[in-house]
Amino acid sequence: MADLDGIRRRVERAMIAHARTIVPKADGFSFGAIDIDPKHLAVWITTPTDRERDRLARDPAVAARFREILAEEGYPPAAIPDVGLAFESQETVDRVFGGNWWHAVK
Q1: Cα distance between residue 11 and residue 69, in whole Å
Q2: Which helix (H) or strand (E) covers residue 87, if one does?
Q3: How far is 92 from 97, CA to CA, in rounded Å?
Q4: Within 13 Å and on the Cβ side, how many CA atoms surround 63?
Q5: How far apart are CA 90 and CA 69, in angstroms?
Q6: Tens-place pLDDT, residues 8-48
């Protein structure tokens, strides 16, 4: 059986690296109940500003590269279409959620 947590970490690192080619201060995190089902993974790319977030979110090549990264890292193929990719900015988290990422994500 594949080491899903190891794959998840590699996918997260690769996706952050890709996002940084577009938005140098991008960061990110991932979470999910992948031990229940690999489709329950969410990868979040974070940016300092709303403008940077929107730039990443509106670029279809970013989402396409995400799916490629999942496949390249060996994520279970049947789960790939259901894995979530989200974008959020620190500006929005500060403005809407009082800086609390936990509230922003849930």
Answers
A1: 6
A2: strand 84-89
A3: 7
A4: 13
A5: 25
A6: 999 999 999 999 999 999 999 999 999 999 999 999 999 99
What is the distance between the terminal CA atoms of the chain, rounded to a whole angstrom?
30
Question: Residue 82 gets which letter from DSSP?
Answer: G
The sign one gets for the Cα dihedral 32, 99, 13, 87 is: positive
Instruction: Produce one character per residue of 13-33: b if its CB has 16 or more CB atoms within 10 Å, e if not.
Output: ebbbebbeeebeebebebebe
Q: Which is nearest to 89 in space by CA: 46, 42, 25?
A: 46
CB atoms within 10 A of CB 52: 22
Partners of residue 42 on adjacent β-strands = 31, 84
- Please answer whether residues 104 and 92 qualify as being in contact, where contact means their C-beta atoms are separated by less than 8 angstroms: yes
- Residue keyed to tokens 């996706």: 15
